[in-house]
């Protein structure tokens, strides 16, 4: 009767995300671009808890620097393909995980094989990658709804940008438990239950101590309303007084104390929270609502708001498109009832067991009725459901004995990909009749804590102006200056075809060039067009702007000199401790994205390891 | 090839030289420890010692990546060392498979380190390391994780708050009568099954518990019943391992004991009465069933009463057999039979008392007090610990002592709240009332067999001129050894006084004198073969300050209330739930059940 080895091995983490979170993780396939110290750390933290599969795309050969900062490679690996080495070593950490690698550079690879990315649940980019390649990856991941995580590291500083088009969270695990008693808007069954109690005046003191506080509040509130019909109903402090005077006569009774403490519930109506409104107003629901049976076979691939379209491999696969079908049902439920389904759980309170159990039953029955109502609505709705067309045969597992050809262009994975019939993921309309009541019930329980989170695409971030940052740039750039300098490195690369600080001898020249690139980035943040800076390698462009560039009235002079120098000083080196820290942060966010549980950090996380500071920037 | 080139380039030659020459101690080679050792080794820390008393368990493998399946049940410290050395042979790593409180890890040994890292899984050891670091003035980086949250904090003795500056929550306690007679929540039944019934049936025979119960005269009749109940159980226990034992236990605890409780009318005036189980019918039904535990997918749902009865009977029989064969057993959440027994016993009791039943998985969480842990948070925290260490080495903690409240460069972190991956808290100076930080520490070498308390006291008073000769007290823990009205012990040797053979701190406190307060002093007893009393190292200067007017008790300083700190549980922590007497008078004599640590 020993628990199976997975339950045992993953015991501690299952308590965080439960069996269905683990199932989502085990179904996920994560792509790592570049087996750097940071990238390997992050992947290690996904392999240990049992991610389904990973693929490392990297053309580099193991260098002395890798040996110095990457725990997973040793001197014996020098000169071997880094993708192969780190894949083998990561694979060793967990037998349940499949490791693949592609010994190729991301820039040509993404251009040649955009469809290869269909299989991934999440793509993570680390190391020094030209911005042009980042934007190319963005163009591949964004339409497919695949979350893209971009990590840039330079010495002690690092940023993590999460790019997601529409990430949904059903179980957000709020810090304080959701309390859903509907005392301000009692449903008829609850009112009927309250009416079964004798008037308080007729109760013995023993009976008075057994009345649960929701009953006390509902009754007192109703009496108070009857006597104060002219007083505005909401937020009346006097209702506290009513409870207080009643409670005073029932001195030392804990249930009456509870009533006093919870009195605000009696006149705080249960609203539909902002986060849920955002979900219900999401554009994708219009598509769902407008899709009628006549269009059953019409592909809607061009629809611009499909989240995570590849059903079985994409992050958050536990819910979409089921998720959106459920949301469409919920929207209809809210439209008719003006409220969310009742959650159905009752917190601990003072009451005798029999009464407490009856009260629990009232809420539970209501929750069950609401779930059934929602279920009927969901079944009536047609939603775009994705048929899985990703050929599973094309995934190639690493075989230790297989010899890898020396030519990077012919890695073993590639032949299979190109040979496989690559059908694009097609969207079809199906009635969501296959969603069972248990799923609907679980969804209804979490209705108040749903989230849909979106960030701009990477292209949007680079291309558009950021008026929200303009003031910060001139007043107190703070950690925004780290962001600016890391973007400036990409401009530097586009102009020089190498990274700043690569050769100590050039450090003065590099500093000047990077400073100039930083000015151009600031200008782009104010006026837009930052994508052109990294795509078109304007030879000598840096010097062309010169001092005149910052004199433009709209572009504030931002002092980023410290970070420019730090960046040149650090060069391409990575520090093990920063890699360890960021590896943890990245994997943590990746797991939140993959399991669709907990609310992930959105947008750009900036870490400064020199001052132990961090900040989240909204691009 | 210089494998430390990246570190050297980024840290600069000077800081890197410090890193290479620093002696660091890390306590704990578990979840955080594995990550930390990797970081320290990669960064090039030249001398690392690590201590861990644990062996590797299969549930460690989802995060403690220096260990693999073939290492299960080997020493964590030794395996971690070997794994790390595979990747960096240029550094020295010394591993100790032992308890950090062992005699060999004395104050002098702690002082031989420049920096200590706490990567520990329990409160007691964490506090011990904190005390030794404060006493030895060694900077400490303390860390812990729970789920997606974690923290790393710099403790620079005398400069920042220490681990003990703020009291930590004590394990939750329940009144005995709630556990034994009138449970009203699932946790009460789980505590009953795990901390009372399990040791009663399969643990060592204990009589003291009853004696303590008898002393509590608040409800004589109830207590008498409980004693009779326990006696009957002991009677029954003699037949452990014989056929029919499990069924006899079942009948006793779910019918006879409940019927006896029902006879006490007073208990049920305000409560719903429990209903004894229909034992014959349930046993008969259970015998028809196959092993319900065989279906693990059912661990997450609540099993039926018949299934639960089956689980109870088979796990009781299995544990009784083990008891008969190999003696007393203790509860372990990873012991399948023990966990099956506790889950079934608790659920049957819930049923009797009309309390909602729980799934096996939920009960395991509650009984084991299992803290969720994941590799990612350990990675985050261990990275922070090393970056904090670099700040300490650069002296960037000390620089800020003057303006610590407003501009600390180094800080304490909580990670991963929604949209707030890394939150930063300020470092505060030590709390003036802290029992650890407020004291001065001195290390004294004595021959405990020949040195008397009088000899020691004389040497101390000589060395510290501010101590009023006639007005000091000496305590060892809570035990009074000397005060001006109690000089009986002055002629006795320390050995005779049973002053512990290691980690003994004698507390020397001066009474207020001439309206001035003198800093309390802790004297660490270092055993030596030489006769006489030798004060080791520098004699610290004790502060004195004017005593506050004694008119009335001053209100508690507001500064202490800044402490809205979240106290993190730590990796692998499982403090037990303790049952205590319900004690309005704060009298905790009757610990029933046992605590594992």
Automatic annotation (TrEMBL), chain A:
Pathway: Protein modification; protein neddylation. GO terms for cellular component: cytoplasm. Residues 390-416 are annotated as: Disordered. It holds the Pfam family ThiF. GO terms for molecular function: NEDD8 activating enzyme activity. Keywords: Ubl conjugation pathway. InterPro entries: APP-BP1, ThiF/MoeB/HesA, ThiF_NAD_FAD-bd, Ubiquitin-activating_enz. GO terms for biological process: protein neddylation. Residues 10-613 form the THIF-type NAD/FAD binding fold domain. Gene3D superfamilies: NAD(P)-binding Rossmann-like Domain. Belongs to the ubiquitin-activating E1 family. ULA1 subfamily. This is THIF-type NAD/FAD binding fold domain-containing protein. It comes from Allomyces macrogynus (strain ATCC 38327) (Allomyces javanicus var. macrogynus). The lineage of its organism: Eukaryota, Fungi, Fungi incertae sedis, Blastocladiomycota, Blastocladiomycetes.
UniProtKB/TrEMBL annotation, chain B:
It comes from the Eukaryota. Zn(2+) binds at residues 162, 165, 434, 437. Residues 10-401 form the THIF-type NAD/FAD binding fold domain. The active site is at 177 (glycyl thioester intermediate). GO terms for cellular component: cytoplasm; SUMO activating enzyme complex. GO terms for molecular function: ATP binding; metal ion binding; SUMO activating enzyme activity. This is Ubiquitin-activating enzyme E1-like. The lineage of its organism: Eukaryota, Fungi, Fungi incertae sedis, Blastocladiomycota, Blastocladiomycetes.
């Amino acid at each position: 009767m020993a628990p199976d080895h997975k339950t045992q091995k993953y015991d501690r983490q299952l308590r965080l995300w439960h069996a269905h979170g683990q199932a989502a993780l085990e179904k996920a396939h994560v792509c790592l671009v570049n087996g750097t110290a940071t990238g390997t750390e992050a992947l290690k933290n996904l392999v240990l808890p049992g991610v389904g599969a990973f693929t490392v795309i990297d053309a580099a050969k193991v260098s002395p620097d890798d040996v110095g900062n990457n725990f997973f490679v040793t001197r014996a690996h020098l000169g071997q393909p880094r993708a192969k080495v780190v894949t083998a070593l990561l694979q060793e950490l967990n037998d349940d995980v499949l490791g693949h690698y592609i010994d190729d550079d991301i820039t040509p690879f993404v251009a040649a094989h955009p469809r290869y990315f269909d299989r991934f649940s999440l793509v993570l980019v680390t190391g020094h990658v030209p911005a042009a390649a980042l934007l190319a990856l963005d163009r591949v991941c964004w339409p497919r709804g695949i979350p893209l995580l971009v990590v840039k590291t330079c010495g002690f500083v690092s940023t993590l940008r999460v790019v997601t088009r529409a990430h949904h969270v059903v179980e957000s695990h709020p810090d304080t438990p959701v309390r859903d008693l509907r005392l301000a808007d009692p449903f008829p069954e609850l009112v009927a239950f309250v009416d079964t109690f004798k008037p308080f005046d007729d109760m013995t003191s023993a009976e008075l101590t057994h009345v649960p506080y929701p009953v006390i509040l509902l009754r007192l509130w109703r009496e108070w309303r009857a006597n104060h019909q002219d007083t505005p109903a909401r937020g009346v402090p006097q209702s506290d007084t009513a409870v207080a005077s009643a409670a005073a006569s029932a001195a030392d009774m804990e249930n009456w104390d509870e009533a006093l403490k919870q009195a605000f519930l009696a006149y705080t109506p249960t609203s539909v929270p902002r986060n849920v409104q955002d979900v219900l107003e999401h554009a994708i629901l219009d598509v769902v609502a407008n899709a009628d049976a006549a269009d059953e076979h019409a592909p809607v691939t061009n629809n611009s708001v499909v989240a995570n379209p590849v059903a079985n491999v994409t992050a958050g696969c536990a819910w979409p498109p089921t998720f959106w079908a459920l949301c469409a049902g919920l929207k209809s439920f809210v439209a008719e009832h003006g409220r969310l389904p009742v959650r159905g759980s009752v917190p601990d309170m003072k009451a005798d067991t029999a009464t407490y159990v009856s009260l629990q039953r009232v809420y539970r029955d209501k929750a069950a009725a609401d779930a059934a109502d929602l279920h009927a609505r969901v079944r009536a709705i047609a939603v775009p459901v994705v048929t899985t067309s990703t050929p599973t045969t094309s995934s190639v597992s690493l075989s230790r004995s297989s010899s890898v050809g020396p030519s990077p262009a012919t890695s073993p994975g590639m032949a299979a990909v190109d040979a496989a019939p690559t059908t694009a993921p097609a969207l079809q309309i199906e009635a969501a009749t296959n969603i069972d009541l248990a799923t609907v019930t679980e969804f209804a329980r979490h209705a108040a804590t749903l989230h849909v989170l979106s960030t701009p695409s990477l292209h949007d971030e680079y291309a558009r102006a950021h008026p929200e940052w303009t003031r910060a740039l001139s007043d107190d750039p703070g950690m925004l200056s780290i962001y600016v300098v890391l973007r400036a490195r990409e401009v530097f690369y586009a102009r020089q075809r190498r990274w700043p600080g690569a050769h100590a001898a050039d450090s003065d020249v590099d500093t000047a060039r990077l400073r100039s690139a930083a000015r151009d980035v600031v200008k782009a943040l104010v006026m837009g067009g930052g994508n052109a800076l990294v795509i078109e390698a304007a030879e000598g462009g840096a010097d062309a702007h010169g001092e005149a560039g910052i004199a433009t009235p709209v572009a504030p002079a931002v002092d980023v000199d410290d970070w420019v120098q730090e960046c040149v000083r650090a060069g391409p080196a990575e520090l093990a401790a920063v890699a360890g820290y960021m590896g943890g942060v990245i994997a943590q966010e990746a797991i939140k994205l993959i399991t669709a549980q907990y609310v992930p950090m959105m947008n750009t996380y900036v870490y400064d390891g020199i001052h132990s500071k961090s900040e989240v920037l909204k691009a | 090839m210089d494998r430390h080139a990246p570190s050297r380039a980024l840290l600069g030659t000077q800081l890197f030289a410090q890193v290479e020459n620093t002696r660091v101690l890390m306590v704990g080679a578990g979840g955080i420890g594995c990550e930390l050792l990797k970081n320290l080794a990669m960064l090039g820390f030249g001398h690392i010692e690590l201590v861990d008393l644990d062996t590797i368990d299969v549930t460690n493998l989802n995060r403690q990546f220096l260990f693999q399946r073939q290492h299960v049940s080997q020493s964590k410290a030794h395996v971690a060392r070997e794994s790390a050395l595979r990747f960096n042979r240029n550094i020295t790593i010394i591993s100790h498979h032992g308890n950090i409180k062992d005699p060999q890890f004395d104050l002098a040994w702690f002082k031989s380190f420049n920096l200590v890292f706490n990567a520990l899984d329990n409160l007691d050891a964490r506090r011990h390391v904190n005390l030794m670091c404060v006493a030895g003035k060694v900077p400490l980086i303390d860390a812990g994780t729970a789920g997606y949250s974690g923290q790393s904090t710099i403790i620079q003795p005398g400069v920042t708050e220490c681990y003990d500056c703020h009291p930590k929550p004590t394990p939750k306690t329940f009144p005995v009568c709630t556990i034994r007679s009138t449970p009203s929540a699932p946790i009460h039944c789980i505590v009953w099954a795990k901390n009372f019934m399990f040791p009663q049936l399969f643990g060592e025979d204990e009589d003291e518990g009853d004696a303590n119960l008898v002393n509590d005269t608040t409800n004589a009749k109830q207590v008498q019943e409980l004693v009779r109940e326990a006696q009957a159980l002991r009677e029954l226990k003699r037949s452990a391992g014989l056929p029919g034992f499990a069924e006899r236990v079942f009948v006793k605890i779910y019918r006879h004991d409940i019927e006896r409780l029902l006879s006490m009318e007073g208990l049920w005036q305000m409560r719903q009465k429990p209903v004894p189980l229909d034992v014959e019918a349930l046993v008969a039904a259970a015998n028809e069933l196959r092993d319900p535990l065989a279906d693990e997918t059912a661990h997450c749902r609540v099993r039926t009463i018949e299934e639960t009865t089956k689980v109870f009977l088979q796990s009781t029989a299995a544990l009784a057999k083990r008891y008969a064969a190999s003696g007393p057993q203790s509860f372990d959440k990873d012991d399948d039979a023990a966990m099956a027994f506790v889950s079934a016993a608790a659920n049957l009791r819930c049923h009797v008392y009309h309390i909602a039943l729980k799934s096996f998985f939920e009960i395991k969480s509650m009984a084991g007090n299992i803290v969720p842990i994941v590799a990612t948070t350990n990675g985050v925290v261990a990275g922070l610990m090393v970056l904090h260490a670099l700040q300490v080495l650069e002296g960037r903690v000390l620089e800020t002592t003057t303006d610590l409240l407003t501009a600390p460069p180094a800080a304490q972190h909580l990670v991963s709240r929604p949209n707030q991956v890394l939150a930063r808290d300020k470092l505060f100076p030590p709390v003036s009332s802290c029992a650890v930080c407020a004291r001065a520490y001195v290390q004294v070498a004595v021959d405990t067999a020949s040195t008397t308390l009088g000899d020691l006291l004389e040497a101390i008073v000589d060395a510290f001129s501010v101590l009023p000769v006639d007005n000091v007290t000496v305590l060892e823990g809570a035990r009074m050894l000397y005060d001006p009205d109690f000089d009986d012990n002055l002629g006795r040797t320390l050995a005779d006084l049973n002053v512990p053979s290691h980690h003994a701190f004698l507390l020397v406190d001066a009474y207020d004198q001439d309206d001035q307060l003198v800093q309390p002093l802790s004297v660490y007893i270092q055993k030596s073969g030489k006769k006489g009393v030798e004060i080791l190292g520098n004699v610290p200067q004790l502060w004195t300050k004017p005593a506050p007017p004694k008119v009335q008790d001053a209100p508690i300083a507001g500064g202490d209330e800044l402490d809205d700190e979240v106290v993190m549980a730590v990796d692998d922590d499982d403090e037990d739930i303790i049952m205590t007497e319900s004690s309005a008078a704060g009298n905790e004599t009757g610990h029933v059940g046992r605590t594992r640590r």
